[in-house]
Amino acid sequence: MTDGASGTTGRYLVLLEEDSAVAGARSMADVAGLRTASTADLYDTATAGSLGDADGLLLHELGVAVVTAGADQVAALTAAADAPGPISRIEPERTVFAISPAAPTAEQAAIDEKLFTWGLQATRAHESQFSGKGVRVAVLDTGVDVGHPDFAGRTLVTSSFVTGEDVQDANGHGTHCIGTSCGPRKVDGGPGYGIAYEAEIYAGKVLGNSGSGSDGGILAGISWAISNGCAIISMSLGADTNPGDPFSPVYEQVAQRALSRGTLIIAAAGNASERANGSIAPIGHPANCPSILAVGAVDSAGAIADFSSGSVDPGHGVDIGGPGVNVHSAWPMPKRYRSISGTSMATPHVSGLAALVAQKYGARGWELWGRLSQCSLRTGLSSQDSGVGLVQAP
User: Fold this and answer.
1) Host H or E run for residue 361
2) Which of 66, 197, 248, 316 could bridge 185 with an S-S bond, Cβ 3.0-4.6 Å?
3) Cis ω on the peptide bond leading into residue 323 (within 30° of 0)?
4) Residues 273, 309, 344, 376: which is the catalytic one?
5) pTM value?
6) Of 217, 167, 242, 197, whose CA–CA distance to 352 is shortest?
7) Which one has a higher pLDDT value, 174 or 42?
8) Which of 60, 88, 128, 141 does the annotation list as catalytic?
9) Each residue of 30-56: pLDDT tens digit?
């Protein structure tokens, strides 16, 4: 399914003008002979894997279609995008991955984690009176261990957008991220590690158990989260980019449309840097979009993590920093817990704290972004690496 050289799947993303889903579907049929099934007509976007004779899926909520098209059809769609009408843009669908745990890093500061993880302490989450109660947080990743005892009794809504796989997490990455953002604050025999411990958890499986997926599955998960009224979408996933690569116009428009509907998308910047060797990698896709909140990683001493991707290209900046080194959180049973590092671990810290901010102020969308930024702590780190600073609890 994937093209190893280009990192694309062979399918395409078609962006439609705002509120032009019906006209866009008609136009795709007229100019390219493409028939799309629409999520407006389906019970659940998780049925995207069973489209019958359709050439693709129209994510009605987002105004984006994911289609299989031949060269002549791509040419026709490209011509239509250049002319007035409902078709705005076409771009190849990428293969996207769970951002793999970074190499183990020695702690630079000794912090007592008997009661709370160092990440909760560094962000002051353990001192906050807010719990995320009433706020819906979607984590789009490798799923969740639905039988994990630490999530017992919680509101846990799940859906899989990976063909042939249910939401059960056989990878671990998704369970770890959900644990940090929304896990428990009190745990027998270990430190509390969850931030928004009373938030409503929406676990969308957009990456398979192998840790890989595609733009189409991720966009379907975003559509599902928005339609379910999630205030926050947390995505510890991405694809590496090269200096000078443009951000995806499709994801940028999706992020803007999500914000206008009251949903903030938060994504990991990436783990591609080797700062000890003088190498800083650019922020990955889709976190490099201006309207997606990009998260870099710091360690327990307050330094930028060696692996954390940074602001190499103008306009593609890290927006905020979060704890991302040796982070203790949930893991699928029977292991139950694991400590790993990465901007993947920093991102759910920010997402969980966004839920606390949303609870305190009733903020959504752009206001939530602004209030979360106002809660950050300026640490003296370069804004290219940590944006407005280290995220803090309200």
Assistant:
1) helix 343-361
2) 197
3) no
4) 344
5) 0.95
6) 197
7) 174
8) 141
9) 999 999 998 876 544 444 444 456 899
